[in-house]
Amino acid sequence: MREIKILGIIVVIVGVLYWGVEPLAHATFHPEVAKADFEFKDLSHNVDVSKGNAERGKALVEANCVACHTLNDVGIAGGDMAVYFRDDKEATIFTPDLSTAGAIYDEKFLANLIIDPANTLHLAHKFPNGDFPMTPYVTDGDLNQEVADIVAYLKSIGSVSLKKQVLESQEFVAKKGNIENSTLSEGQKQNEIAKLEESLTNKATFLNACSRCHTMKYDGVSSRTTPESLGVYLGSAAPDLSTMIRSKGWHYLEYFINDPQKVSYKAIQEAIIKKEGSLPANDKKSEWQDDKDYSNLAKELGVMPVGLSMPRVGLTHEAQERVVAYLESIGDAKKAERESLGIYLMIFFGVLSVLAYLWKRRIWSEIH
User: Which residues form the Cytochrome c domain (predicted)?
Assistant: First the structure.
């Protein structure tokens, strides 16, 4: 009877810790924010990309974009850097190559980025004087149609360019050669090559989306932009991401990458209460907003907390999953092994508990 009481006490303590303390700690360290929005519902320009013409888009890109951007995988050299000045300090900014943009970035995000870059990236607060390096697209023609054409062209070359970057990389060629020269069966070789291509596609997505600012020291990836230039340009240097998956976790990264400028519901509501004295009814929120999301009201009142340096990335859901998978493959390479070992440990302790119980019964039977 005593053992059952002790077991009951242990169960209660574990239950309180697991269902009470742990969620409270998680909510404190990671306050609730809006979930990741891969439809980018807050963006105001609705361009019908399905009506875009890739051929016209190519001509528009060559006429308007290559002064600052390259498209190396389709043979368009263009420009790849710009010099930015702030407070008499100079920053050398490497502009992104657009070869894979249509494959990794959402088409609605791309269209809005072309029309209104600073607001689409959620960086207007960093450039209050309107001096964001990328200028809005201006035309005497049909703006929506021309933007649709540009995005259609980027989409037409995006996936091909991403695949080309993977299959022509030195890492793929070398590792593929090692697999082909191994003693594996033909089926096993093909399976390993497919896994290699998948893994390097994840890496290529990261390189295109993140490596202009971030390093991945554990995999030998350097940032193209120096910390000093980032400090002038965006206000702070970008962290190395080698162990980010371990320090933040997959769930945090899912919504953070989608929009780093998101502020917790609690912080937004506290800012409104501080100005208004109470929390007014939020009857003007958009239909896609959560009931606890007062961000529209906070912006209207001029109390919306902002200030982070990282821009909104604009990745598709698939591309973001690839980036996180790459972070996990570098920062938590033993995850699968660790999780499988955990199952064996649970089985071990289960068997040990049964043996301990049987041993206890035998000892006490001899005493009585």
Answer: 52-158, 197-331
The model's pTM is 0.84
In sequence order, the 6+-apart residues with CB closer than 8 A to the CB of 254 are 36, 320, 324
pLDDT digits (tens, 9 = 90+) for 314-338: 999 999 999 999 999 999 888 788 8
Distance (Å, rounded) from C-alpha 190 to C-alpha 180? 9
Count Cα neighbours of 69 within 13 Å in the Cβ-side half-sphere: 20
- CB of 66 within 8 A of CB of 155? no
Q: pLDDT digit string (tens) for 195-209?
A: 999 999 999 999 999
Residues 6+ apart with CB under 8 A from 249: none
Q: Is 307 helix (H, G, I), strand (E, B) or coil?
A: coil
What are the Cα distances from residue 77, in Å, to 71, 80, 99, 160?
A: 6, 8, 11, 17
Half-sphere exposure of 118 (CA within 13 A, CB side): 14
The first and second tokens of residue 20, run together, are 């009470």
Residue entry with tokens 């242990």 = 10
Q: Which tokens go with 100?
A: 């894979």
**Coil, strand or helix at 368:** coil
